[in-house]
Specification:
The protein has 240 residues and is mainly beta. It folds into two domains: 157 residues, no CATH class; 66 residues, SH3 Domains (SH3 type barrels, Roll), CATH 2.30.30.40. The chain has three helices and 16 strands. A five-stranded antiparallel sheet has the order 3-4-5-6-7. The longest helix is centred in the N-terminal third of the chain and has 13 residues. The radius of gyration is 21 Å and the shape is globular.
């Protein structure tokens, strides 16, 4: 069991891809690292990491507040089993820590305590994480927040003791807004150019806007709710 946990943990960290964004405020420095579920899983598939030893179909699920690693395990003398485990992050004294939340075997949740798992995954995960972030200039910075939502892991690093950056205003609900795409346009999971692409909306498509945040309008397209950039839209009605 512990061998399986280590395989999954290694797969998750080594597979991470990030898109950094930097901003400066009040003489402090901030680096925001975003890692999407699609980026991680594309990397896993493209590098053949979805099949490792006894594990097949390995993939990542970025859930609300939790990261899940799932796959199928086949061992001699046993039927293939669907296995998953979750880890939840926290920040303690400027260090990201991780804790197991739940294990799932063939859709049956089991607590780590019931499996006799008492080890702390933090040291191993962070050792690999340091290798991963070495390419970014994080000298003098500490993680101040980590969130898992909208299929995206977001880690914010700031100068210790600096005031926290002002969070972006939440999306504002709107009515009477209609938008038409001027070109084939990516529908993104968040109001950001780094948001995961949910679909491509063809040029000339007219949709109703339901919310707005900055330069982005929220719409629904083919059962996907996401965000379109206003710069590529013909706007009619109240879309602000």
């Amino acid at each position: 069991m512990k061998k399986l946990i280590v395989v999954f943990a290694l797969l998750f960290i080594v597979s991470m891809l990030a898109v950094p964004a930097k901003s400066v405020y009040a003489a402090a420095r901030t680096v925001t690292v975003k890692i999407t579920e699609d980026q991680i899983n594309s990397y896993i598939r493209n590098n053949g990491l979805d099949r490792t030893g006894e594990v097949s179909d390995a993939h990542i699920l970025v859930q609300e507040g939790q990261l899940a690693v799932a796959g199928t395990v086949s061992s001699p003398g046993m039927a293939p089993a669907k296995v998953a485990y979750g880890v939840v992050p926290a920040i303690n004294n400027g260090v990201i820590t991780w804790a197991y939340s739940v294990f799932v075997f063939n859709d049956t949740p089991i607590s780590p305590a019931d499996l006799g798992i008492t080890d702390d995954p933090t040291a191993d995960v962070n050792a690999l994480l340091r290798v991963f972030i070495r390419q970014y200039n994080l000298r003098g910075l500490q993680p101040t927040s980590i969130t898992l939502t909208n299929h995206t892991i977001t880690i914010v690093y700031t100068t210790p003791g600096a005031p926290a950056p002002t969070p972006a205003a939440p999306p504002a609900a709107i009515t009477g807004c209609t938008v038409t795409t001027n070109t084939d346009l990516n529908l993104r999971s968040t109001p950001s150019s780094s948001g995961a692409v949910l679909a491509v909306v063809p040029s000339g498509t007219t949709l109703g806007g339901t919310a707005v945040q900055g330069a982005w309008v929220q719409v629904s397209f083919k059962n996907n709710q996401g965000w379109l950039n206003k710069g590529f839209l013909k706007i009619q009605g109240k879309c602000s």
